[in-house]
Amino acid sequence: MNQFSLRMADRVKAEQELITAARKATNTDETAPKRKHVRNCIVFTHDFKTSMPVWESMKSQPLKANDVQCFKAIITLHKLIREGHHVTIQEALTQTKFLEDLAHGLGGGVHNGWQNYSVLIRAYINFLLAKLEYHRLHPEFNGMFDYREYVSLRGTNDPNEGYETIGDLMSLQDRLDEFQKLVFRNFQPASNNECRIAALVPLVEESYGIYKFATHMLIAMHQRVDGAEQALEPLRKRYNSQHYALRKFYYECSNLRYLTSLINVPQLPPHPVNLFGDDFVPSPITDRDGSTDGRGASVPALPDASRSTPTIDMEAERRAAETLHRKQEEEQRQQQILIQQQIEVRRRHEKEEQQRQVAIQQQMEQQRMEQQRQLEEQQRMYEEQQRQQKQREQEQLVKLQQEQMQRQVQGRMQELEQQILLMQGQHERDQLTVDQYNKRVAALEDQIRQLQQFQQQQDASKDELIRQLQEQIEQWRQKYETLAKLYAQLRQEHLDLLGKFKQANLKANSAAEVM
Fold first, then answer.
1. Which of 101, 114, 134, 220 has the most crowded Cβ, counting Cβ within 10 A?
2. Residue 295, φ and ψ in degrees, nearest 5
3. pLDDT per position as a tens digit, 107-155
């Protein structure tokens, strides 16, 4: 079996497993989505660089018919947007209509008593739409608001841009705070609230990622902006207010036993960080098994800078970023090792399956060697076309991203152009696939014609056999007629002799009587 067929088989098998995982993660049981099922969806996006099958699987579920199923689906999508491949956010921006329809289409599900999730679903979807809108306006962010990646892409040299970025990010934090309060208000005393608590897990991780980024960004801005004490006072007040709100939120979460069994809730200091100094050292969010999650990896504070120095040069900024990178390496390495282990296990199983398929295919190749050589040639041509097409797409995407960074005011137009490029690339790949299948159909038609010729030969031989049988029947019929005539002649002779015999007897009897 050639390499292309193996990849196609792996993709089909992975999508089947993905559909199963998505269905299990969004079942109707009022429990939290199983972490292994959600993790399978996330790993799929890293393996195949797309999240569209996940969205299609969600669309195939009857989410509007059951509030619990719909709420679990939103939790799964939130985690997917945060932890999936970077293309997940771009593809999620094309699915906002689906989320809006999901929020507006509620009404046919279970809404009686303690199973009413419609209010939480609408609020959760509104928060996800706000998060996606922020990513649309600020495409340099990843789903987890990683400060190191942001600095490497954007930098913090423009105070006005930094002010707007932090302001929008704090607005998103306020939306998150409103939603988490709504979740707590909807706790039901007659239930274990496991499904509702499950929504708090990504909210804790999301809020802490925003908090860490805002802290580092504000510290950097205070070191760069002249007159930062007055110019950045509105942001400081808002930051301090959110600090106390997050501290209260994390305190309430730490009292939920089920939540603390999943992650370590962050512990914030009693008072906000001194934004003019370097006393901020955030604690990581880890799973209960001790593995550090990249969502909560500790991000040390930027290097100290004198308050008497209003600005710093680019060299100082690079040194600060290098110090930050070195301190983050261990935590990021642990997250990457965890993901790589899961991917390696998956690939190992796939490799074993590939080996079994190769063994089966080797037995079949002896019977159709000529046809296989033709298919291999076609596959090589197809793979080359795919490689060239992917290379063109990569070049086009890189070019488009550069244009987006240079012309941020035209962000929406460039986003639509990127979507068109993706659709064109998908169309070309689909066209190549259709051509491949057409060639396969032509080969099958040749086989059918051969079978038809063989059948015609069999029919001709049967006709010859029937003709011979008919000739034999005719011969036997003629023999039968000859025998019938002979029998009739002998019978007539027998009757004649019998008559003569009777006459002779009569004469003999008459002679005897006379005597």
1. 220
2. -70, -30
3. 544 444 445 789 999 999 999 999 999 999 988 888 888 866 666 555 5
Residues 32 and 78: beta-carbon distance below 8 Å: no
Look at the block and give the residue holding tokens 């939103």. 74
Query: 142-155: buried (b, 16+ CB within 10 Å) or exposed (e) per residue?
Result: bbbbbbbebbeebb
Residue spans of beta strands (DSSP E) within 250-312: 285-286, 292-296
Position 63, amino acid: L
CA atoms of 109 and 452, how far apart (whole Å): 56
Residue 227 region, left (φ>0) first, then alpha (ψ -120 to 50), else beta?
A: left
**Opening angle at CA 205, ends 203 and 206, nearest 5:** 60
Return the DSSP state at 190: T
State the Cα angle at 390 between 386 and 391, rounded to 5°. 115
d(C-alpha 182, C-alpha 501), whole Å: 130
Residue 69 is predicted with a pLDDT of: 93
Give the tens place of pLDDT for each residue, 386-427. 888 888 888 888 887 777 777 776 777 777 888 898 899 899
Cα torsion 110, 113, 115, 121: sign: positive
Place of tokens 């007897």: 505
Q: State how far the Cα of 513 lies from the Cα of 283, in Å rounded to an integer.
A: 153
Contact call for residues 265 and 259 (beta carbons, < 8 A) = yes
* R_g (Cα) of the chain, nearest Å: 41
- Cα angle vertex 174, ends 225, 35, to 5°? 115
Can you give the pTM of this predicted structure?
0.55
Residue 200 vs residues 208, 259, 265, 382, 497: alpha-carbon distances, Å: 12, 8, 11, 47, 123
Helix (H, G, I), strand (E, B) or coil at 494: helix
Q: Give strand pairing partners of 296.
A: 285
Helix (H, G, I), strand (E, B) or coil at 141: coil
Query: How is residue 265 annotated by DSSP?
Result: P
Rounded Cα gap, residues 437 and 216, in angstroms: 54
The helix or strand, by DSSP H or E, that contains position 293, with its residue range, turns out to be: strand 292-296
